[in-house]
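Thread: quick sanity check before group meeting

JM: Hey all, I'm pulling together slides for Thursday and realized we never actually wrote out the predicted structure for the chain we discussed last week. Dropping the sequence here so it's in one place. If anyone has concerns about the input, flag it before I start.
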Amino acid sequence: MISDSRLRSDVLRLFPVVGRLSAAQQEEFFSRVGRADLEQGSAVCSEGQSCTHLPLVLSGSVRVFKLSESGREITLYRIEAGQSCVLTASCMIGGAPFPANAVIDDSVTALLVPLGQVQSWMQASGAWRDFMFSLVAERLAEVISVVEEVAFRRVDARIADYILHKADPDGRLARTHQTIAFDLGTSREVVTRILKDLECRGIVSLARGELQLRDRKGLESLNK
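JM (edit): ok, ran it. Output follows.
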C-alpha cells in the first residue's frame, strides 16, 4: 500500500491517468500497487517470462532490448520517469510471455501494478483502458522505427543521427562504443571503425567513454 503523500503526489503528476480514476478506484490503486527500488545493472525481466506486474517508472531508466543467438543486442526502447513498458502491457492484454529482456540502466524507483488489477481496471475504467491502448500505440511506433532503422539505413548514417540527437548542447556525448552498438543493433567494432573515421575527418574527437562533436555540418551531411 502506498500511503506516503509525497509519493502519491509524484504518481499523480507523472501518471495523470491515476487522477482520472474515480475516488474509490484511486484508493484501490494505491492500496494494490507496490513500490520497487532497483539498482543499476539489475535484471528486470528475461525473454519468455510471464508478465505479472506492470511497471510505472517514477525515476531512473530501464533498457528493453532483444538478444540474438550470437549474443548481439539491440535496444528497443528505454522506460523513464512517467513511462511504462509497452511489451509488458501488450503481454498482459494478450496473455503472451515477455518477448525481450529488460535491465536497469539507471537506478529505478517504480510502482508495480499486479496483473489482476491491470485486467480488472481495463474492464472497469475507460481512463485506464485508454491509457493501456495509448501506451501500446505510442511505443509500438517507436519499436517499428527501430526495425526500419536496422533494416534499411546505413550504419554510418544511423551513428550520425544518434550523435546529433543524443549529444548535449555543447556537442558532448557520454556513451561508450559498446553502448552505442547496443542502442543501434550493431557491433562495437563497427561503431569504433566509423567513429575513428569521423575523428580522422575532424568531425568528432574521441576520449574514453565519450566523444565531442567538432563539425556539425560535416556530420549532418552523413545523415541524409
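AS: nice. The longest helix spans residues 126-152. The chain has a mean pLDDT of 90.
JM: adding both to the slides.
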